[in-house]
Design goal:
The chain is of the alpha/beta class. The protein is about 35% helix and about 15% strand. It has two domains: about 150 residues, Rossmann fold, CATH 3.40.50.2300; about 55 residues, no CATH class. It contains seven helices and eight strands.
């Protein structure tokens, strides 16, 4: 069974797609095979569909497929013309260079006005080429704050960045009986800053809230 609920995948993916379409209709002039005919728009997706990250990449792909099916059923218009959304997916095996090549191919060959990518490393690579010979929007499904700090005008970050989670996490933990705690020597050596709370002297420390995530270590999955 997939680890992410169908309804949550659908909501996040639909938000990504519709936000991207709204922006690209203005910024990039539409796009897709329906240019001049108004029949279809390709939504590009590059993600890990094989290898160690395949389960994560497939989950995102399923969410996009469900969202596109819902949107097509409701009806979609670009510049006042009805269109049908079509998903084109390519496997990048979690390799940033492959993701960038896939994105360029989706923009050039399939005329995709938007390319969805679900990990920070790939997105950073795609940001280097999305305003070159083909302008296209990156629908960034990651919580890495470096994505927006890159100041790429054709990048739309879907979830909030990790840094915004810390306050809410701490407040929720305190509501459940957490108490202030000193940073331990073990957590000091960690690459992730520890959460400055524990669940009491006789219990294990409260799980740390990650503020940054490396795509080389594990998939960037918005919480």
């Amino acid at each position: 069974m997939n680890s992410v609920s169908r309804s949550r995948r659908r909501r996040l993916s639909a938000a990504a797609i519709m936000g991207a379409i709204a922006l690209t209709a203005t910024a990039c002039g539409g796009g897709g095979s329906g240019s001049g005919e108004g029949d279809s728009v390709v939504i590009g997706y590059t993600g890990p569909l094989s290898g160690g990250g395949a389960a994560y990449g497939e989950n995102v792909k399923i969410g996009l497929e469900m969202a596109i099916a819902d949107l097509n059923a409701d009806g979609v218009e670009v510049d006042g013309e009805p269109v049908t959304l079509e998903l084109k997916s390519l496997d990048d095996k979690y390799a940033p260079s492959t993701a960038a090549s896939n994105a360029q191919r989706l923009a050039d060959q399939d005329k995709a006005p938007v390319v969805v990518s679900p990990n920070a490393g790939a997105i950073k690579a795609i940001q280097q080429i999305n305003s070159g010979r083909s302008n296209f929007l990156i629908s960034a499904y990651t919580s890495d704050p470096a994505i927006v700090q890159a100041d790429n005008p054709l990048t739309m970050m879907i979830p909030p960045n990790f840094e915004s989670y810390a306050t809410e996490f701490s407040e929720t933990a305190m509501e459940h009986g957490a108490t202030p705690a000193e940073r331990s020597a073990e957590t000091t050596a960690s690459t992730m800053p520890p959460c400055p709370i524990s669940r009491g002297p006789s219990r294990k420390p409260w799980p740390r809230s990650p503020t940054r995530s490396s795509s080389a270590d594990h998939p960037n999955r918005p919480l």
